[in-house]
Amino acid sequence: MPARLHNRTVAIVGRPNVGKSALFNALAGRRISIVHDQPGVTRDRITAECKLAGAPFTIIDTGGIGANPDDTFGSAIEQEADIAVTAAELILFVVDAHEGLTPVDRELASYLRRADKDVWLVVNKVDEDKHRALADEFAELGFGDLLAVSAAHKRGIGDLAKTVADALPEPGGDADAAELLKRPIRIALVGRPNVGKSSLVNALLEDERTIVSDVAGTTRDAVDVPFSHGGLDYVFIDTAGLRSRNKQDTSVEIFSGMRSKAGIRRADLCALVIDASQGPTGQDRKIAGMIADAGKPCLVIVNKFDLYHPDAPKSERLAAVAEEVADGLFFIPYAPVVAASAKTGESVRRLFFAVEQIRKASWDGLGTGALNRLLQEALVRNPPPAGKGGRRFKLLYATMAQVPDPDRPVPVADFILFCNKASLLPQSYERYLEARIRAACPYTGIPVRFVFRERAPKKKG
What we know:
Rossmann fold; 3 domains; alpha/beta; GMP Synthetase, Chain A, domain 3; single chain; 12 helices
């Protein structure tokens, strides 16, 4: 059987009426897809979780291949098989034991062989042992072992589910969590000079590990400070203060700024430190823009909170600070805000709560089915604008890339959108789709990014 794969998405493909939807329902353990003798009943891609054996995995029931008599097979296969091949790491190619090998099966097999994916041949409707010989005809397709099942009678479904589950990794499991946290989580503290970045590090460590001074720009290099808290290992990257380029009056400041930017790039998460007594400034916005452009998860630490309207009730002070940050850094509204004081130690360790909140956010996000329903509803409610020639952006399928990466302990929310033409989608509409996603799932502290996969253009002839 195939080696371990990169994600846990399995697509079910095949010509009409071979029992794809029946197999989908059997693996899902409940009736989801409509099963009917009429070919082409399934027209949309439907997703569900298979929990019959081992860790759950996502199954996609594709439809539409040959659904309409007027459709050419080539056109349908481009849309349905393309999406399945790109979205899934493992493909269950379903054929009908009783009807035997057909020209459409051969054409689909030829397409799937050219894909760089693992394809398993599932011979359906093997209802009894005496029907097992009917599966031998499909050996000439060259997909290795044949998996004989009867979706209607649940025959061989448990073994199929276990075989698939064993071939897939287990994202989100204890082993993957341990792998993700093998190395420390790198947190870059960035901000203008003299906002208290080094003081925050010292307050967290309860030690004078970095030089603290009232003179702006005391920290000249990005200093890595290891630290453990709550059973997790961290490395704080204490960066030099970033001043605007027209105020960098020495070559040392220029190189320090370059190292700070490098610290942002190599961090897993960035903590933007601002001065509560001054609020978000123009330079704070520029630094926040650097973090956003780097695609890094982030939070905002409002330091010197002890000096912010000290006579007012704390609840009012927190609300006022949050409003100031929301107004001043409106383009990173997803970043949680921690109001703290490095001088008094107030709420300094809430940084770790915010980090853990961010770290878990993308793994507890939208499922594939919910994501597709949400985006399709958004497209219907507010259709994308027409481009040249009246063409519009069309979304075929969406999925979230949740591949455990040991080099990214704090994941980001990457959404893969399978579409007709990415250039037909303006940035303003991308922001609209992001807003719809965040309304359903905030993805606290995490940038939402869209990765577009376009359908291959149709070949002439």
